[in-house]
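Example 214.
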Amino acid sequence: MKSITKQKTMEEIQQSLEGLDKVFVVGCGTCTTLTKTGGIDQVEEMKKNLQQIGKRVTGSVVIPTACDDMTEASITENEQFIRSADCILSMSCALGVHRMYLYIGKPIIPAVDTLFIGVEETPGYFREACAQCGQCLLGETAGVCPITACHKGLVNGPCGGTNNGKCEVDKEKDCAWTLIYNRLQEQDRLDLIRKYQPPRNHHITLKPRSMRIQ
Ligand code: SF4
Ligand code: SF4
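Predicted structure in complex with iron/sulfur cluster:
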């Protein structure tokens, strides 16, 4: 499961870097390497692009997993280059930005947009897998998430538009509820398709969400 990102345009990045001339670039060896938005090659490319728009790059690092414990060690190792920069340009997902803010007092500017949590279904094709709704239904839907796989996020069966197993919103895409039906049938658990899901408890997703482990 990976954090799926897309790179911002250089125009957007340039705007965010207004008044910040010395830049330290951080990539991530996990998710943004997989999506080719913040791995070694993209960080090197970004350094060239920054120089072309008149920025001074004080250094760069690709942290093995930017949202994890390794971030602190990488930041400590690169402290002198980070100290001489006006800001960090982050080519990790937003989770990496949050993590870096635990250790760095300077502005951290994201160079990528974090889109969703997904899986690589076929090489280079990423599909959203979970919207972290807090009330998981996968046990009753044979592992197909109706929140992310159905265009309308329906949890009590298909809409009236499903046609020959395809979705009415995107005819190229399988209807989530056809997938659920077929898998439940294979598992001999079709009775679950009739199970009524009550209205969702939106209190569970009130922001900011947090949890304490005792
Ligand atoms: S139902 Fe879907 S969105 Fe909700 S927790 Fe399960 S996989 Fe995630
Ligand atoms: S056709 Fe299927 S996937 Fe598309 S919106 Fe209707 S129920 Fe959801």
